[in-house]
Amino acid sequence: MHYYVKAQTFLTKSGVKTGGYLEIKDGKFGRYLPPETDLSAATIIDKKDAIIAPGLVDTHIHGFAGHDVMDAYPAGLAEISQGLLSCGVTSYLPTTLTAPPQKLAQVCQLLGEKAHEISGAKIQGIYLEGPYFTTEHKGAQNPAYMRDADFVELERLQAYAKGMIKKIALAPERPGALEFTKQAVKSGVKVCLGHSNATYEEAMAAVDAGADIFVHTYNGMSGLNHRAPGMVGAAFASDAYTELICDGHHVHLGAITALFKAKQEKTVLVTDCMQAGGMPEGEYMLGEFLVEVKDGAARLKDGGSLAGSVLELFTAVKNLVDWGLCSLSEAFEMASELPAKSAGIADVCGSIQNGRDADFLVVSPTLELKETYVDGQSVYQK
Q1: pTM for the structure as a whole
Q2: Which of 64, 184, 255, 332 could form a disulfide with 277 if both were Cys (CB 3.0 to 4.6 A apart)?
Q3: Is there a catalytic annotation at residue 302?
Q4: pLDDT tens across 168-193, in order?
Q5: Which residues of 172-211 are buried (b: 16+ CB within 10 A; e: fewer)?
Q6: Which of these is catalytic: 247, 272, 357, 359?
Q7: At what angle do helices 200-209 and 177-186 cross, to 10 degrees?
Q8: In whole angstroms, what is the distance from residue 320 CA to residue 260 CA?
Q9: Strand 241-244 to strand 267-269: parallel, antiparallel, or no bridges (unpaired)?
Q10: C-alpha span between 281 and 35 (Å, rounded)
């Protein structure tokens, strides 16, 4: 199928384009053509005053629509992928929790065998959030299964996953973490730092060893003090990417502003969404923990700590624009190209450019998601 999308604004890899046409051919992006181009003989889909944005990329998400990645259930994964289209997400990394080795193996094997068969938002890899964490900032991760970093275990899980593991998160103060980081990075897996009480020095040593992502920055890590900068200080001082949950609950707007002033070009929007995403308020499970969802936040029933989120990635983009913290194009970049880059998957998703899969969004001037396209086909309409 060969057609052109006409719209008011295009957020392309080469910059923001006003007016004109975007070519879609055989499910791939083609050329952007300026408004004066004569396309009288072509098929044109006119989106009038809409914004055409790249499909969003969620690189840290545990579940959606009542299903959790850890359920290791093919039909559940299918419903997550279908549900995410309504959030503007066209690519994602199903994310695990700290768990026993056999459970992680089961999840990795399922994803390795079934990911390519699931329609909807594309599964571009696996993110292992843990299990090599420490208890001080455990959040909703089960300390009973936390253990020292083990590259042999990662290799075994990668074999089950058929090479799909793209990221793994750990606490850099655990024994063996630095050597593990070097080995993992050499094998092609991105190493993230989080759920950790590490000192600034320990965190920076891990960055020097190859770690280059901080997990949901500010949350689940040692804080910033002027004499003990901690993990947060390392996130600011390093060149690593910084994940950020912009739901109005996890991080104060002032803290978001500070991070943007330091390194907006390396900030990655994520949701950390759990199975209650897209569902009514009530009680849900995150791993083995009971969670109550109320007033837009997910909290552990026991203790009240934040337990993931129910944030949708498109909402995070809209929040940043509505809060006046960045431009429209910057907000979309932090939810598409930058997450793809951080996870090492920017060669297959995250931007509108010639030759890439035509995964894109149709957005109203008031920032409402109107339509989601995957491979040039309309797959969700509001």
Answers
A1: 0.97
A2: 64
A3: no
A4: 999 999 999 999 999 999 999 999 99
A5: bbbeebbebbbbbeeeebbbbbbbbbbbbebbbbbbebbb
A6: 272
A7: 30
A8: 11
A9: parallel
A10: 46
